[in-house]
What does this fold into?
Amino acid sequence: MREAKIIVHGGAGTIRPRLWAAYRDGAHVAALIGQQILSQGGSALDAVTEAVINMEDNPVFNCGTGSCLTYDGRVECDSFVMTDDMRIGAAAIVTNVKNPVKLARVVMEHTVHNLIAGEATGRLADAYDIEKIDPHGLVVDRRRRRWQEMMDRGLEYMVDPELESSDDPTDLSDEDGMDTVGACAIDRQGCIAVAGSTGGIMLKYPGRIGDTPMPGAGSYAGSAGAVACTGHGEAIMRVCLAKHCYDLMESGMPVQEATQQSIDFLVQRVNGFAGLIAIDSKGSRAWSTSTPNIPVGIPEGVVDSSSGQSPA
Ligand code: ASP
It folds into this structure.
């Protein structure tokens, strides 16, 4: 029997000091929820799913309730799950489901597909009794105010050249997105899983799908471990960041080195801003980010370092 472990993140970005405690504690609580499942002999897949559900219901994070808004002021969510036996489930452009990660599980467990997007996700939710919600119910005041502020400044899309070419990730705050959530775990049987959920990035073009539901880009899991990324999805996708980190772990690189080298690679290749968490097959965990902050949750205690890398 192995020792079960979990690590979660609450998004890489620039978190305003007055909000830091909410992010830090939210990530810690989600990790505790996952750990409780693991301690009772539950599966890594259940642990990461429940940790993410808790964060989807926490309005602080950019997923489920509290998601960022599209250019036309609506919520469109993406979600993902994957296990080390190469099973994948993902949902994208989800507009009316309270917990999009539950839909990712349905895609994995009840369909022959990997990714379902758009209007059909609502029908899938109906077919499998997944709780629906009025799309307005996912919008919180803080995001609405930020959306209005950005519209008033005449900003077009988050992916416009002004932001894409920015060398300064502090241009982007938690309220612009980058506070997607993810979780990686290994259970007592040695099974490994990853889950992620996001509202994407503020002012994204309607229909834009980010890295989170893309296997190998935002997340990946296999027998060597699991990786969950967060940050600027377009940059993450260009370098397939999660698979890059996974491959380093699979080649035998220690997890902490693998996370840091992956972030260095992202910066060198596409000048991207992103962070990631990872767990290896021995249960060692690490994180790294090119952004000022990444709230990380582990059950053993509150992680109060707002930024940077995991301790050695
Ligand atoms: N990676 C997400 C996206 O681009 C955003 C985030 O991590 O907060 O959709």
In short: The pocket of aspartic acid is lined by residues 11, 62, 177-180, 198, 200-201, 210-212, 230-233 (CB under 6 Å). The radius of gyration is 17 Å. The longest strand covers residues 77-83.
